[in-house]
Amino acid sequence: MGYPSFSDYWNELEPAVLVVVGLLLLVFPEPATSALGAGLVLLGVSWWFYEWGR
Prior knowledge:
- By secondary structure, this protein is mainly alpha-helical.
- It has helices spanning 10-27, 31-53.
- It has one domain (11-53).
- The longest helix is centred in the last third of the chain and has 23 residues, at 31-53.
């Protein structure tokens, strides 16, 4: 048994990056970045649940 390759985890990495970037944008006090950050977090979480069910 070998180690799984990076491509096996690619589907989990993309939504996680969106969630992390969205959380970072929520920290900035400007309303535009906070709204964009909230949207990215929602997109990332929904994408994560979509990939989880597949």
